[in-house]
């Protein structure tokens, strides 16, 4: 009994020592860095993942297109129906193309990618480490669990305490059987309506964050009430909302009054679908996906309303057709195309640096 107690105390001391070492730092797949080293940062991307969990059958009469190779003649169809093409969902097959894109991103001034692939959509930490080593781009990996549809039987059976332990361990010791550590919790997947398993993961995320002082990023359900529900659950569980990003705001809250009401809650507002423009959004047909020009105007509105310290941007690349190899915009789209348009629309370079450098730096630094 005494040996067990002493062993537990020793374990706790090591854990506390590791958590203390994180304070004031940013944790990448290659180790700890100073926040000042981040540079221009995309706060929500994927470099390798499998999104087959979200396959949608194609429109009637177009079934044959699901299995055809990706060719020039079907690129527009693919852009409009990205989740109906089976191969398109396998970003994990495009390591060489992603490596080339990261080099272009770095050449365009990019410094850091927050890689949001969590348990359930084929996180590959060894590959993230390799890509970072080969390109010189800082990569920050995500801990935790994606949406309920990807939760394993084991995950569903875990208590909040057990889920918390898993998440904390992925940050301080390493994930997926490696010693490669995650530097952010998320993207934590939520559906609408929220499921029991997702609710437990949210509570565990809050508990882990309160222990670690780390950044959190959330994937909300596709309903304008979802972000409010998530923040309430996390607040009740002890989360630090000021260190939390709510993703996909561009497809979630459209009403300006409701958006400003949500902004008052204090989390970061992420417009992370730059480059994505659909005629018909398969995952929620009720939504008219905004254009990049509309995203820019919404970001400018938030800045004008005093939220310049709470907005971050990204592309959320997660399918092959978004890569330049397949005629897509790639990871450097914001730096190459959106920033110049923001300047034209009256967003100053100082404000742009807030969105791309200062806000990510504040968010990603451990407290």
Automatic annotation (TrEMBL):
Catalytic activity: N-acetyl-L-methionine + H2O = L-methionine + acetate; N-propanoyltaurine + H2O = propanoate + taurine; N-acetyltaurine + H2O = taurine + acetate; N-acetyl-L-isoleucine + H2O = L-isoleucine + acetate
Cofactor descriptive note: Binds 2 divalent metal cations per subunit.
Residues passing through the membrane, by range: none
UniProt keyword list: Hydrolase, Metal-binding
Positions that bind a divalent metal cation 1: 44, 46, 187, 316
UniProt superkingdom: Eukaryota
PROSITE patterns reported for this sequence: PHOSPHOTRIESTERASE_2
Positions annotated to bind a divalent metal cation 2: 187, 219, 248
Cofactor field: a divalent metal cation
GO molecular function: hydrolase activity; zinc ion binding
Matches recorded under InterPro entries: Metal_Hydrolase, Phosphotriesterase
UniProt record similarity statement: Belongs to the metallo-dependent hydrolases superfamily. Phosphotriesterase family.
Protein name in UniProt: N-acetyltaurine hydrolase
Organism of derivation: Eublepharis macularius (Leopard gecko)
Lineage of the species this protein comes from: Eukaryota, Metazoa, Chordata, Craniata, Vertebrata
């Amino acid at each position: 009994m005494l040996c067990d107690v002493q062993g537990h105390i020793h374990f706790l001391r090591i854990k506390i020592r590791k958590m203390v070492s994180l304070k004031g730092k940013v944790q990448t797949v290659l180790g700890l860095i100073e926040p000042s080293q981040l540079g221009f940062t995309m706060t929500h991307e994927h470099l390798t993942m499998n999104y087959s969990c979200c396959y949608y059958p194609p429109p009637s009469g177009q079934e044959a297109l699901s299995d055809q190779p990706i060719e020039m003649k079907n690129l527009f169809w693919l852009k409009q129906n990205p989740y109906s093409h089976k191969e398109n969902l396998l970003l994990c097959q495009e390591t060489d193309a992603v490596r080339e894109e990261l080099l272009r991103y770095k050449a365009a001034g990019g410094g850091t990618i927050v890689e949001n692939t969590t348990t359930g959509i084929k996180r590959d930490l060894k590959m993230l480490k390799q890509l970072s080593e080969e390109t010189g781009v800082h990569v920050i990996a995500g801990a935790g669990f994606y949406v309920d549809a990807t939760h394993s039987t084991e995950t569903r059976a875990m208590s909040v305490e057990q889920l918390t332990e898993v998440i904390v361990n992925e940050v301080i010791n390493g994930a997926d059987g490696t010693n490669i550590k995650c530097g952010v919790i998320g993207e934590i997947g939520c559906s609408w309506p929220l499921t029991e398993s997702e609710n437990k993961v949210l509570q565990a995320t809050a508990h882990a964050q309160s222990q670690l002082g780390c950044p959190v990023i959330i994937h909300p359900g596709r309903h304008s009430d979802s972000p409010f529900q998530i923040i309430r659950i996390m607040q009740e569980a002890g989360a630090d909302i000021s260190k939390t990003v709510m993703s996909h705001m561009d497809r979630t809250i459209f009403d300006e009054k409701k958006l400003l009401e949500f902004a008052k809650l204090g989390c970061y507002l992420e417009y992370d679908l730059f480059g994505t423009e659909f005629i018909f959004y398969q995952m929620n047909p009720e939504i008219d996906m905004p254009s990049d020009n509309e995203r820019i105007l919404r970001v400018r509105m938030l800045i004008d309303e005093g939220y310049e310290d709470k907005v971050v941007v990204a592309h959320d690349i997660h399918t092959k057709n978004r890569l330049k190899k397949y005629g897509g915009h790639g990871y450097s789209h914001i730096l190459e195309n959106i920033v110049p348009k923001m300047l034209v629309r009256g967003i100053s370079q100082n404000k742009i640096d807030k969105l791309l450098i200062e806000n990510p730096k504040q968010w990603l630094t451990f407290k």
